[in-house]
Amino acid sequence: MRSLAGASLLSLALVAYGSSAVAAGGWSASHGTADASGTTRTVETGGVSGQRLAVEGELRNTGSGCYTLWIQWTVDLTPGPPFKMGTQCGAGSVPVRFEKPGGLGTTWVKICRDTGHSDCGPIQYLR
What we know:
mainly beta; 4-stranded antiparallel beta sheet; 12% helix; signal; Secreted protein
């Protein structure tokens, strides 16, 4: 029983500190004629901050308009500014990648028509 408790504590410690043992997660979002999908993974930096979250994938559009993929996250329960990951105008696709500071907080992505924030699909939380 004691070794099971020790293994559980070790697992909790690895998750709490974002060890490279944490598996990558998948994500997807859509709006209008556009969709995007990809993965997230922890990147160990070895610096003072210790780690970053890499969000990678592809933004696709089957229509004639422009669509933009945005990423945003909270810091101390306050949403930070959105950052543009990529824009696709017309039919086609574009690779997207963004690295953000790791740590606590909630991160999400959304797709918006054109390059603004007035006509957007639902936010999709990343893990």
